[in-house]
Every structure is written in structure tokens, then in C-alpha cells.
Amino acid sequence: MSRNLSRFDPREFGYLIVDEAHHAVAETFREVIAFFQPRFTLGLTATPERSDERPLLQIFRETAHRLELEDAIRRDILVPIRCVRVETNVDLRHIRYNSVDYRARDLEEAIQVPGRDELVVNIYARHASRKRGVCFCVNVLHAERMASEFKNAGVAAASVSGRMPLNQREEVLRAYQAGEIAVLCACDILNEGWDSPCAEVLLMTRPTLSKIVYVQQLGRGTRKAPGKEHLLVFDFVDQSTRYAQALSLHRLFKKTEYRAGALVAAPEEQLLQEQQIIKAGEIPPVILGIGIYDTALRPVDVFRWQDEAEGMIAANELAIELRVDDSTIRDRIRRGEISPDLNVPVGDREYHFFRRDRVAELQRQYGVTPLSDENIRDLFLKFVDDADMSASYKPVLLLGMLRCADASGRVRVSDLVSFFRDFYLERKKQGLLPEAPLRRMARVAELTDLDIERTMLTMPFEKFERKRFFRRLKDLAVVRFTETLWRRLTEADREYLAAKAQEQITGYYSRLEVAQ
């Protein structure tokens, strides 16, 4: 829709409905919503929180109704949930954190433990072998590995991922719905937008600190279906520090006591009935049916530092507000210039959080002019004029963005990669020095497109992105000038910027040749 808005009239629709509305503050969604002028706009989402905490009320203005997951279960709209916590010896204590969740690469390495995979399969085979389930995995390779483990144990299983051709993925999901597959092993592709009422078991093998991710996964199995009395959740609890504990059902619902296989969320009448049976010294038939006989209550630590940090911003977000890099913020904290409002030790690092109401105060302290629609053009031109250069990448990137941008300021990443490659190859072809010998682009002929993309979109692009001049739209493999900035740049501004970038490139290579 965002790429074809010119084909519509702004008053084309009287009633605009946005599903998965937690995405509505993303740039492509905002463009579409802002373009149309309906009489009414309705947003629907099961997860109104966002990991970046950008408020949805900026888009939808008011909340008509909000129903929490546990409340929906109490009202008998969704099925009751039972839970079994399975403790493992996998160590997550040293995994790093990216201010939203565990670092993906660290997590991938930490859970590459064959014994953990075998434990997951054995737990399913022992307690839920006749029930259809979904095993949530860390990534595609983990999903494929888990599917293989299930098959080796005689369980009909398949992995499903975004790498699959659409028709193949749809065939796997069809076979699962038909009962030909017992366990689906999936990563993020099934986190939202897919429901399976027939799923009676969820195997939570992907540790996450994100409430959004956990709730989305949980929601895949909470729909009612004929003969489905409850959803059985297996939480795989790995070893970690108190601050680095992954989310689990009991932590989500703040249940401080645990009984294996017992109801965690259900209508009040069902909860009381089960408690009375256990109090009488009996074991409920459902618990017997899944082969778990533990009726003793055990304590669960439901501490979540994320609750304390709600509404705060992380140090890397503060860096963007102050228009400096992350290391500058860390140095200021280390020197005692800035005192965080919350310090969180996760893995081998400590993460710092600040109240949002301190941003304006810190901007004044460091003489930072807040970015606005009115000043973004002037600040951008000044940023380009004052560019510090230890490599050629920044002006080459700017030149590529200007040359490859469409009418709305968007640039396909693949086009930008081609521009970047061609620039350095052309210098090499002319017998000129492509870059300083130790710089990656000095070896341009040996680099893959992915190598170039990573080089281009790290330091040079991040410099512009941190200042909120450029933005990457990851889902579309597109980058762009910030919408407000692009509107403010005149044709003369763009010509000036292209000339300035060319001047900086010429000056850089002149200095490089002298140094050589």
C-alpha cells in the first residue's frame, strides 16, 4: 500500500481497520494511515505493547477496549492453561542483552546443546505424545534441528520458516491442521498472524526476555477447539542470574507458587475446584493423565526488572536523543557526569536506563537542540558540512542515497550495495587506490553483496541513522531519508549535498595519496 498510495484517493475508504496494530507506529504503516482520511480508524492487536515503547495512542488516540490474556481466560473466552516447568543445566548467565531481548547470536550459541534438544523431545513423548504441539525455537537452524530430533524419536514433525517457498510453507501448515504432523517446530514466523486452535501443547524452548514475544507465542495455542480442555505449556527454564531470567508463564502472570501440571490460568470456578481436590489429598485426573504426580507447591521468583524499567529509555536510546554514539554515553556514566535511574546486570555487562522526563534536562546540559520538523534540514546540512572522515564511506553513502532515492526518498538496499560496489571497483579499474589498505573496501573485488551491505549499513549508515536523518525499513529491504527531512530538502539542497559529498571524497583521496 505504501508504495502505491498515488493510485488511491485519500477519501477512498470510510472505515480503516488495521490488524496487528502494534506495527502502526512503524514508518510504512504511518504513511498509509496518515494518507487516508476515513471517518473512523480501528486498530486491533493482541499485544498492544511495543519493544521500543512508541505509543500507539499517537495513532489511534483512544483505547476502546483492552482485554488482558489472563482476564480473557478467566472469562472463558480462551482455554485454561496448565504448566510444567522443566529445569535444564544450560547456562545463560553470560548472554548479552540488546535492550529488548537476549543477543540472538549469543542465544544461538548457548542453546546448541544436544542434551537440551533430547530433553525437549523426551518431555513431549513422555507427557503429551498424543497431542498436537508447537515447539518455539531460536532460529531456523534450531527449528530444523528440533524437527529432526522429533522424527528420530518417531514423532511426526516438521520445521516451518520464512525461508520456505510460500506454497511449501502452506502445505506444512495444512498437514499440521489435518493431523498428519504432530509437532511444528518454528521460529518467529509463527509468533503472530497465525493461530492453531488444534494445538494443545506449547514447548517454549526459545528463551526470551521480551513479554511481547512470549505473549505472542502463548497466544498461538489459546484458541478454543472441540474436545480441547486446556493448553499445556512446557516452560524450559535454563540457568541464569536473577536479572537475566527468561520469561515464563508464572513470571508473566506473577504467580509466586508452582505445582507441576496444575492450572495457572482458568475461570475462578475451575481454579477453586482443582484446589479443593488437591487439598483433599487427591490428584486431579488431568494431572494423572499427563503422567505428573507432584502436588507440592514450590516457590517461583517472579522478579522482572523490565517492570521497573517500564517507561524508561536505555542508554543507547539516550545516545540518539543526545546525538552521540553509545561509547560517549558509557564514558559519561563512567566519569559520573550522568547517573542512570536503573542499572541492570545481564550477562557480563551492566545496562543503564533513564527516566524519559530527564531527556530534555540532559539535552540542555550538553547544549543539544532537540530535533524538530523545523530544524531537521538545517541540522542535516550542518552534519554533512562538519563530517569527520577516517574513511571514504560516509560521503560515498550519502552520494548513493541521493542518486538512488525515489520520489519519496526511499532507496532499495540492493541498489545502494550496487552503487557502493561500483564506486570502489571503478577506482580500482582506473588504477586508483580504492581505499586505505586496511579498510575492507580496499578488497572490493573479493567481497560479497552481504559483506558490502554489512560494511555500508554499520558505521556510515548508523551515523546518519543515529541523528535520525536516515532510517532502515528492515522488512522491505529498504532504507530511506527520514520522511520529514526528505520533504524539507529542496532540489537545490540535494544538488548542494551531492557536490559536498563529491568534494569530501576528492579531499579524502588527496590526503590518502599524500599519506601513501
Give structural notes.
Helix content is 41%, strand content 15%. The chain has four domains: 2-66, no CATH class; 70-303, 3-Layer(aba) Sandwich (Rossmann fold), CATH 3.40.50; 306-365, Multidrug-efflux Transporter Regulator, Chain: A, Domain 2; 376-515. Helix 13 (315-322) packs across helix 14. It has 22 helices and 17 strands. The two termini are 51 Å apart. It has 516 residues and is an alpha/beta fold. A hairpin with a 2-residue loop joins strand 13 (342-346) and strand 14.
How many separate domains make up the residues? 4
Can you list the strand order of the major beta sheet? Answer: 5-6-4-7-8-3-10
What is the CATH T-level topology of the largest domain? Answer: Rossmann fold
β-strand percent reads: 15-25%
Largest sheet: 7 strands, mixed
Helix- and strand-based class?
Answer: alpha/beta
Helix content, binned percent: 40-55%
Q: What's the CATH architecture name of the largest domain?
A: 3-Layer(aba) Sandwich
The CATH homologous superfamily name of the largest domain equals: P-loop containing nucleotide triphosphate hydrolases
Summarize the structure.
The protein is of the alpha/beta class and 516 residues long.
Could you outline the blueprint of secondary structure elements for this entry?
Elements (H helix, E strand, L loop, with lengths): L14 E5 L7 H9 L4 E5 L12 H4 L8 H6 L6 E11 L12 H7 L3 H14 L5 E4 L3 H13 L4 E4 L5 H12 L5 E4 L14 E4 L6 H9 L11 E9 L9 H5 L3 E2 L4 E3 L2 H12 L5 H5 L8 E2 L5 H5 L2 E3 H8 L3 H9 L7 E5 L2 E7 L3 H7 L10 H10 L7 H12 L5 E3 H17 L19 H8 L2 H8 L3 E4 L4 E4 L1 H6 L2 H25 L1
Parallel strand pairs: 1-2, 3-8, 4-6, 4-7, 5-6, 7-8
Antiparallel strand pairs: 3-10, 9-11, 12-14, 13-14, 15-17, 16-17
Helix pairs in contact: 13-14, 17-18, 17-22, 18-19
